[in-house]
Amino acid sequence: MPLFHRVTILGPGLLGASLCMAVKERMIAEKVRVWARKQSALELCKQEKWCDETEPNIKDAVKDTELVIICTPVNTIEETLSEIIQESTENTIITDVGSVKEKICRIAHAESQSYNSIFIGSHPMAGSEKSGMQYARSDLFDHRTCMITPFPDDPAEKVSILESFWVQLGMNVQQKSPKEHDKIVASVSHLPHLIASTLAEYLSHRPEDWLEMSGQGLKDTSRIAGGDPLLWREIMKSNRFFLLDALDSWLGSVNDFKKNLTEERWEELENYLAKAKKCQTKI
Amino acid sequence: MPLFHRVTILGPGLLGASLCMAVKERMIAEKVRVWARKQSALELCKQEKWCDETEPNIKDAVKDTELVIICTPVNTIEETLSEIIQESTENTIITDVGSVKEKICRIAHAESQSYNSIFIGSHPMAGSEKSGMQYARSDLFDHRTCMITPFPDDPAEKVSILESFWVQLGMNVQQKSPKEHDKIVASVSHLPHLIASTLAEYLSHRPEDWLEMSGQGLKDTSRIAGGDPLLWREIMKSNRFFLLDALDSWLGSVNDFKKNLTEERWEELENYLAKAKKCQTKI
Fold it and tell me: Residue A147's CB: how many other CB atoms inside 10 A?
């Protein structure tokens, strides 16, 4: 038996549409309902096998559904949540797929206590430097990590249903508090993006033909700098305190490297590289 | 007709053995001769189809051959060169595959004038974080860039034969002076390695389970930190002046980013990310 009768996806972009596909393919819900702000996006969805129902009114979209997943752009999650939270009941779990969790979870938690609705944050760590429905793939979530960020007083049964949902999508689920989540992703996701971007920005000031003399190493190291600038601006803005902490600590590591290089401490430099290699093999 | 009657590979590691394979597969030489310092490595080569002849004596190995490629570890290239340069004649092109060119080319150029031998540096930008003959692949060089670093007074005919050799291996060949080469690779190869290593070193100080919450982005950004520490220590040591220059300029870019983040200049930060993205698409 499917886990849900109906799942509702708000925002059929890369993540939203991929979720629809994966939910249908793995038969996690009998019905997949889609809401989009633009009528044109809804028209496209109607033609897809992974979409059973479309609903142009967001308040109606969240009725009679057991799971609502907010997949709108990261800077509109709060606004989307505020449009639906009063309409939702304790029979519906609301979640999102945003990369930063502390603020949205705090707001949702406060509001849900007034309205008797249930919000539990999710962060499926799947994506791509591409965005848009046309890049959606049903296997986007396979073997990836999903963090869920409940508060201690969230109903355990609902937390466990949400966890099952992501597990059934093929994900490795980890529970963290919203704050811990933000601290961790600052280091393992946002800092790498920042670093890749600084490398690419540095190279943008060098002669263009230098890039022809690069190999796979530079391609890999810089790849994520190809992500959407507006999306990443919003992510970094939302998580700026933890990101600045991570940036400062990492600059300490850069400084240690530089010291070894400047002072020609070759053995220390080799040890540093060996430590880095050892950690890299675990990534 | 093959470009050469005989090609000699000194040091059948990842690059050396891959060269042997590719030379045979593409019929660039009638005979492939291999020299290795260890007898056990030569015994292994004897069993391979890509090896026509083995020669345990390095001075004999470079006789009656039109191309000698030094593929020994980066910190032994100078030593290997000094063992063979007096034995070599003007009928033989000696080259190497090292990642840093200025010093070796300067030494070789000075010596070759005394001994009437010909050395022209090469840097095929192909490789892997793996090393050793067992990882060798005949397609390692396909569509990769190879820099060759002649001096202006090197015989044009020999430069052109060496260029043809790498082109026949499927590579995109670029000519630069040894000094320009080192300056460019400091930015497009050695700095990315340094950066990936600082990220991995930073993460080695964080709780180990954080890595379970990372995605493909961190994998890609850190991948090259998995390279051999001793090899990279030697590369960075040989190119420390240009690498320090590149490091300092890049730290300027990091500082610009940090300033935007600290002072909450979101529009500038988005522009920065957009500039980085634009450059990244050309990599």
Answer: 25
